[in-house]
Amino acid sequence: SQTIHQWPATLVQPVGSPLSLECTVEGTSNPNLYWYRQAAGRGLQLLFYSVGIGQISSEVPQNLSASRPQDWQFILSSKKLLLSDSGFYLCAWSSLGGFRDTQYFGPGTRLTVL
Amino acid sequence: RKEVEQDPGPFNVPEGATVAFNCTYSNSASQSFFWYRQDCRKEPKLLMSVYSSGNEDGRFTAQLNRASQYISLLIRDSKLSDSATYLCVVPGYYGGSQGNLIFGKGTKLSVKP
What we know:
Shape of chain B: globular
Radius of gyration of chain A: 13 Å
Largest sheet of chain A: 7 strands, mixed
Largest interface: A-B, 27 and 26 residues
Distance between the termini of chain A: 38 Å
Strand content of chain A: over 45%
Shape of chain A: globular
Largest sheet of chain B: 6 strands, mixed
Order of helices and strands of chain A: EEEEEEEEEEE
Number of helices of chain B: 0
Oligomer: heterodimer
């Protein structure tokens, strides 16, 4: 069966510090991978998606970046965090693509920037 | 019309009640829809998929009205454990290989004893 992992679960970082969040998927090959952010009291915002190694698409301009060095690995990074980067970061995967696609989420990383 | 719109609630209902949530969407070409459940401070989890006119799974029924562009989720015989936020989800566009989904902001349900 497929499983998705994220770490760390919780993170508190000062403004201006770097960030690296990792997501890994097991039990499936060539998944589509996604990074979402959910700010307090708001809906999920798609940040990045990837259809393969080294292929990253960004949905919104921001000071975050993403990379996919392995088929099963998706990394979210920032060189300098802003207060507005606080939120609940969720990684998701899907396999089929197209209009019947279902996305499955990892447990998330709760980031607080102080 | 917004891409996906839901009544934020909260819906406060007693145990055993029947409750219904509605969700409207703007993309008339959308072919499949989803309801996710999100518990407080947890990740969203798939509750139901809706590909045709509707879907039923135990106490949960999802219905789709393409003409009016809305989907609904009906929960019968509510349990305390049903308390959560329910997210309506629509594909961002039809047939796209990336399968991007648009998530509603969710409807919060609180079931009381």
